[in-house]
Amino acid sequence: MSLTDVPTIEAIKLTKRFGSFVAVSELNLKLEGAKCVGFLGPNGAGKTTTLKMFTDLIRSSSGEALINGINVHTSKKAALTSVGALIETPEIYPSLTPREALMMIAEIRGIPADQRLMNIETAVAEVRMEEWIDKRVGRMSKGMKQRINIASVLISNPKILLLDEPTTGLDPRGMTEVREIIKGLKTKQRLIFMSSHLLGEVSDVCDEVAMIDHGKLLIYDTIFNVTSKFAGGQDMVEVGFQRPVDEGILSKTIGNLSGVVSTSKRDDRNITIKFTGGSATQERLLSDLVRLNIGVISYRPSSIELEDAYLKLVTATL
Amino acid sequence: MTNEQNISNNTVPDSMSQVGIIAKYTFLDYLRSRRFFVLLIITVLIGVILTVLVHFRSAAFTSSNLDFYSSYWGSAVTFVIILSGIFFGGDAVSGEFQNKTGYFTIPNPIRRSSIYIGKWLAAFVASTVMFAIFAVFTIATGAYFFGSNIPYQFGESLLFALLYLAAVLSFTFFFSSMFKSSVISVIVTVILFFFVFNLLDSFVLPLAGIEPWFIITYGAGIIGNVLTSPFPPHGPLSAPLGPRRLITLSTFNATIPEGLAILALYFIITAIIGLYLFEKKEFT
Fold it and tell me: How far apart are CA B180 and CA B100, in angstroms?
């Protein structure tokens, strides 16, 4: 695939049955271009099963899983050449060191010999495992192994990343670091398809979201559109302050800004603002808040909105 | 890696090269594993015990050069081979599912067959190390008693044993492909090789007068029999059953072509079925 090609992941009537149980039902989904798409759904919704069908871990009962237009089932090697995948929490041969395990993956993926070592060391540094690079994997904790697994995804610098709950098993610091890595990858023109139970993680990292339940796709759109659709024409942002927020500022100054419907405190230094008027108001609201000089240090779309949308959609299908 | 120009423009190696890559790293994993050292100790112990036996009961072993190799090598090498098969093949494929190591390798641009064959090769090389150690013990002990005069039949037996090793590993890989649980696949393999096959081959089928040509251990009989002169034929064998009764068994001995055919067929058929099962099996 050349640098100008647009990365794509496409499911065409993708179906997986386990006996009479339908895990994924005629899923049609096309992800195209450099972006991060969150894949949400309750336990057993079919998220992991879908990702497994895109990586040859399981075969579809019918339909097609295509990567860059290539069928994963019939042409696995060609399809997965530009894909880095992390499904569940893989184990690595316990007697190998991370350097050896990653070298194996680098050789399998055909990374040129003169780049392998550099790629491995860069990826290991990115997941902060430099001190463990020559220790045996069998002696490592689950979280450390997961960091090595993430490094294995990064070493070939793939154009497409399939990540199944990548922060599983990581401590809070590790989770934050992985999110930062994923955000960094977004800026490098990658298509990232990431399943997660953590709505905050998805709203923090992803641009778009696909929701699935009972094996059926419920919605696929930008996070903004999804949340707007379920917020009754109102949107929400979370604002963080350097100092505790005064009630007066909250209710009068911020509450009276144009477009603001309501404000509420999450804690001393964090508030949520409901507003109308879409992204134009969201943009103006930020500049208004900064102009008020009240110590704004963070401003982002609310994950609570995504949670609301998720709960409404999933409840509707129960 | 952060260089944009490097994005996924790698040329994935051909499947044969990938077999070599999997074999190399799996062997490295075996080489450092506890099971490798345990089997190494067992193999050395077998060699030491047999050497001590030769020293103290030399008449039973050293009536002739060929008898020595038949008693020393022929009696124990199949045991070493079966142990190697169980240690390195018993959970080779099932472990990919149960231990989740398959999740690390499968979602890469590599055919499942390359992983299967690579792992088989690694197990074969690791087993050959044990096999070679036991061969060195045999030759060294033989050289002590008979000088450097090694009968040519020992060379034949070595080759037959290598074919048996290949067949045993194919068979254990096949069973390992059938189950997702490593424990079950290892237990089934142990039961088959140490109890079921031996019982059928040595007692049940001879008692019924049926030649056990379909049992792998029957084919492996050529490893010891080639060291017996003359090569043992089929024939009746009377054995005491109580104080006044004799029981007549039909003893069967595969000829060399028959033995080679049985081992080769076991190798080929179980390799094909095992590979097919691994290709079809799902990581659920």
Answer: 10
Q: Measured between beta carbons, which residues in chain B are less than 8 angstroms from residue A152? A: 104
Among A88, A93, A154, A191, pick the best mutation site for testing chain B contact (most B Cβ within 10 A). A93
Note the pTM of the prediction, 2 decimals. Answer: 0.85
ipTM of the complex: 0.86
Mutate to test the interface with B, among A50, A61, A108 (most CBs of B within 10 A): A108
| Nearest chain B CA: its distance from A11 CA (Å) | 17
Shortest Cα distance from B281 to chain A (angstroms)?
8
Cross-chain residue pair A118–B104, CB shorter than 8 Å: no
Per CB-CB distance under 8 Å, the chain B contacts of A76 are 109, 111
Residue A168's identity, in one-letter code, is T
CA B171 to chain centre: 9
Which residues contact residue A111 at a Cβ distance below 8 angstroms, ignoring those fewer than 6 apart?
A119, A155, A156, B10
Q: Which of B8, B21, B112 sits opposite A82 (nearest CB)?
A: B8
Structure-block tokens of residue B19: 């077999």
Q: Mean pLDDT in chain A?
A: 88
Structural domains present in chain A: 8-223 (3.40.50.300), 231-317 (3.30.70.1560)
Q: Is A42 helix (H, G, I), strand (E, B) or coil?
A: coil
Residues of chain B with C-beta less than 8 angstroms from the C-beta of A95: 28-33
> How do residues B205-229 score in pLDDT, each as one tens digit?
777 778 888 899 999 999 998 988 7
How open is the CA angle B120-B181-A152, to the nearest 5 degrees? Answer: 60
Q: What angle do CA A126, A129, A132 make, to 5 degrees?
A: 155
Are B65 and B151 a contacting pair, CB within 8 Å? yes
Q: Which two tokens stand for residue A272?
A: 């949520």
Write the pLDDT tens digit of every residue in A179-234: 888 888 777 788 999 998 888 888 888 889 999 998 899 999 988 788 777 766 67
